[in-house]
Amino acid sequence: MATKHRWNIGKELVSPFELAMMLLSFISVILILVMVLVPMDKETKRLLFLIDSGICVIFLLNFFVGLIRADHKIKYLQLHWIDFIASIPAIEPLRLARLFQILRVIRLIRMSRSLIGMLVKQRRQATLASLMVAMVTIMAFSSVLMLLVENGVPGANIKSAEDAIWWSLVTISTVGYGDFYPVTTVGHVIGGVVIVCGVSFFGVISGYMASIFVAPDEQEQLASQRKEMREEMDVVLKRMEHNQQQMMQEIAELKTALYQATPSEQQPPSSN
């Protein structure tokens, strides 16, 4: 039974979203360890809790989408039930169960022959997964750093967890409402880095959206290639059929010429 179970797991495909969930699981486990082991003020701890809750929402969405798309839902639940348990928000110790998902994905990566080849074949999913991980990571780290730097500084207006999250969202989207802004030098540096990341982030999104509308779909490319191959095969078959008919005609002409020449050669010589 164990051998069969290992074989089934080895046959799973490592999708880009599985890798994204692994990275988010790693971030979630780090957040929980920091909340438990590192002493911090109440507002920073609440900020980490909100970030962890947001990541849990992504986990739950991924779980239910996978459940809906699964052909064998019972088997999917048997393999991923621990992912659902580890995605329940407001219960931080359950997030440590994400270690099992991290180990499972690492095992699948080791069993797969070419991780880069898999990502290249699934470019769209890899792009979306990388953008999601990048956005969550940038927003999480920038909001935490900004709250640590700005909290308690005279004249600072980023004082709560909600303020830090709203500032990071507005800054990474390059909207810049100006209602919350850093007042320290370190805060300005963090803000500059987030702005550069935001510009690059949405530049990638723009390129991705353009590729969807401009570049042909993979299925359309396959259909076009199949059509070209059929047309080439038809041309080759017609040419072979034409050559065969020509050869048959030449053979028939040779037979006729031989048949006409044979009686004249077999006639006896005339006597004088």
TrEMBL record:
<keyword id="KW-0175">Coiled coil</keyword>
<feature type="transmembrane region" description="Helical">
    <location>
        <begin position="127"/>
        <end position="149"/>
    </location>
</feature>
<protein>
    <submittedName>
        <fullName>Ion transporter</fullName>
    </submittedName>
</protein>
<feature type="coiled-coil region">
    <location>
        <begin position="219"/>
        <end position="257"/>
    </location>
</feature>
<feature type="transmembrane region" description="Helical">
    <location>
        <begin position="47"/>
        <end position="68"/>
    </location>
</feature>
<keyword id="KW-1133">Transmembrane helix</keyword>
<keyword id="KW-0633">Potassium transport</keyword>
<keyword id="KW-0851">Voltage-gated channel</keyword>
<keyword id="KW-0630">Potassium</keyword>
<feature type="domain" description="Ion transport">
    <location>
        <begin position="16"/>
        <end position="216"/>
    </location>
</feature>
<keyword id="KW-0812">Transmembrane</keyword>
<keyword id="KW-0631">Potassium channel</keyword>
<keyword id="KW-0406">Ion transport</keyword>
<dbReference type="InterPro" id="IPR028325">
    <property type="entry name" value="VG_K_chnl"/>
</dbReference>
<feature type="transmembrane region" description="Helical">
    <location>
        <begin position="189"/>
        <end position="215"/>
    </location>
</feature>
<dbReference type="InterPro" id="IPR005821">
    <property type="entry name" value="Ion_trans_dom"/>
</dbReference>
<dbReference type="InterPro" id="IPR027359">
    <property type="entry name" value="Volt_channel_dom_sf"/>
</dbReference>
<dbReference type="Pfam" id="PF00520">
    <property type="entry name" value="Ion_trans"/>
</dbReference>
<keyword id="KW-0472">Membrane</keyword>
<keyword id="KW-0813">Transport</keyword>
<keyword id="KW-0407">Ion channel</keyword>
<feature type="transmembrane region" description="Helical">
    <location>
        <begin position="20"/>
        <end position="40"/>
    </location>
</feature>
